[in-house]
Amino acid sequence: MDIELKQIGVIAGKEFWDRIRNRWVLAVALVFTAFALVIAYFGAAQQGAVGFRSIELTIASLVSLVIYLIPLIALVLGFDAIVGERERGSLDLLLSMPITRLELILGKYFGLSAALAFSTVAGFGLVGVLLSAQLDTNALFHYAGFMFSSVLLGMAFLSLAVMISVFASDRTRASGLAIAMWFFFVLVFDLLLLGALVVSGGEYGGAVFPYLMLANPADVFRILNIFGLEEVRTLYGLATVFPEALSRPWVLGGVMLAWITAPLGIAVWRFRR
Amino acid sequence: MESILAQIADPSVLAPVIEVCAVSKRFGAVQAVDGVDLVVGRGELFGLIGHNGAGKSTLFKMMLGLLPTSSGEIRIDSEAVTGPGFRAVRRKIGYLPENVVLYDNLTGIETLHFFADLKGADKRECGAALERVGLAKAASRRVREYSKGMRQRLGFAQALLGKPQILFLDEPTSGLDPEAIREFYAVLRGLRDEGVTMILTSHILAEIQERVDRLAIIKNGKLQAVGTVQSLRERMKLPLTIELARGAALRLHIERLLEGLPVGRIEVRGEHLLIQIPREAKLPALARLTREEEGIDDLHVREPSLEDVFFGFSD
Q1: Per-residue exposure over B105-129, b if at least 16 CB sit within 10 Å of its own CB, e if not
Q2: CA A256 to chain centroid
Q3: Yes or no, beta carbons of A10 and B114 under 8 Å apart
Q4: Splitting chain B (315 residues) into consecutive groups of 10 residues, what average pLDDT does each group show?
Q5: Which residue in A21, A90, A96 is closest to B93 by CB distance?
């Protein structure tokens, strides 16, 4: 396949620096920092305690936050990547350059991913630095794992967003689809699974249930983080529900990579038609 | 319609640069372009005209390799536009889309740097390109502050990056004021002198009729005619118009004077008298009119306009 990395780099560079210049990266990083600090120091305020307690409980709280926030940010970031260019009329101009459609879409994706990853790592990383005096190596490793999986979650939803931007005929539809996708994966999906389980009285689908959770990148992210933390695993009561074979980080990481590559692959296929 | 061989044999076509061979494009039930054969020679300024929806844009996009053909082939410098050598082809091309929309958040010079990177052009060209289109002073202003005409000129500067050998210009003077239009065509003349081939579309026929070397008229996806404006006038056998200044009062007298000649419509417009006459009757008519010493202040012979030619072929 004829791919020029330089062309991908030019598009990615523009997308990334656009977000730096318009302070998008800064704003998102500050939101992450603020939320992470509040959760780390005031997460237990309802129990009458203030101050940092443990990294495991902090990560568990952050996971709940990130599951809402990062998919939304990623979908908003990427929903108009292609359809926006088409609607503005600049897509034809870009495609008249010595660039393939594959290079264009990869450049867009990598540039936006870099902006999202940078703001995620900067935002949560700053909190990690502030907490580092109170953390041992193991805790820091878990926190780094949480940041890395947050980046993967963002990339998975960004991949879905780019897919939407290729299929949608205009920006309005693309934004509607992005919101619908957020509702489905973040709010509805787990309720549907739970509903099915309750309706069947746990008789049917109990064994399939954990596997079905892999069909949602937000759930994969949740499992990936929670299974690495013994205290939280017990807290969530998941240790007895979730099969050990699926809880290995490399399996879950592989599933997350599939969530990144599959929508992007579909987007490339559609865009090249 | 001329075959591609006849077009290549046309002495006004120098070395063929763009070859469109039996190209068709169908979108579902709609035949957007139907069996078009077209050759554009090196250094030509070529016009492509037609009604909205005639198939110009589709043909344009296929020539740029943005749309695949349903059948037929398009070559630029003997290389298929969508073939393995497409990058080399595109590095020879500059394209100015209709109503070009650039990136509001970038400055003029940053916009050109971005496109220079994509084209693999030397970034040092960017300043000169801005100078050439008269935007040197606005180089560091953001595009969002540009007027429509400035954006159009920036789009043109973008098309000039990489020293293209072929320029595709879609409605290039849209949004430009008359002075900018004159400057724009002066730049095109300079480029033609450098051997650059240019193909442009325009709805303003009066603007291009004296400026293009040849043109093609397209209707319902089919090429109706190709040639110089003069050759198309002759082929259509459109009448000339003799305009007599302050001749309205002499209408009956003039009609008698021209008796026996194949005179067409005679029309009074204000103080002027307009007489349509076949090309072959021009000299005898002028001989009779210039013998007339009283009443006629001045006369003017007008060729049929490109608009007349266009409607002649497309009606």
Answers
A1: ebbbbbbbbbbbbbbbbeeebbeeb
A2: 9
A3: yes
A4: 61 80 93 94 93 89 93 93 90 91 93 96 94 94 93 94 95 87 91 93 85 91 90 85 82 84 87 87 87 75 84 74
A5: A96
- The alpha carbon of residue B106 is apart from the nearest alpha carbon of chain A, in Å, by 8
B283 with B207, same domain: the answer is: no
Q: Pairing mode, if any, of strands B93-96 and B16-27? A: unpaired
Do B271 and B219 share a domain, yes or no? no
Residues B161 and B255 in one domain: no
CATH number of the domain within which B230 lies: 3.40.50.300
Interface pTM (ipTM) of the complex? 0.88
Q: What six digits make up the tokens of A73?
A: 């940010």
For residue A269, give every residue at least 6 positions away whose Cβ sits within 8 Å of its Cβ, in sequence order, or none.
none
B305 lies in the same domain as B205: no
Domain of B90 in residue numbering reads as 4-234
Q: Among all chains, which residue has been given the structure tokens 């595709």?
A: B168
| Helix, strand or coil, per DSSP, at residue B85 | coil
Token readout for A137 is 């190596």
Q: Which of B234, B253, B279 is the last residue of a domain?
A: B234
Query: How close A85 comes to chain B (CA, Å)?
Result: 9
Number of structural domains chain B divides into: 2
Q: What's the pTM value of the predicted model, to 2 decimals?
A: 0.87
Candidate from A18, A21, A98 with C-beta closest to B119: A98
**Residue B85 exposure: Cα atoms within 13 Å on the Cβ side:** 10
Which of B210, B234, B258 is the C-terminal boundary of a domain?
B234
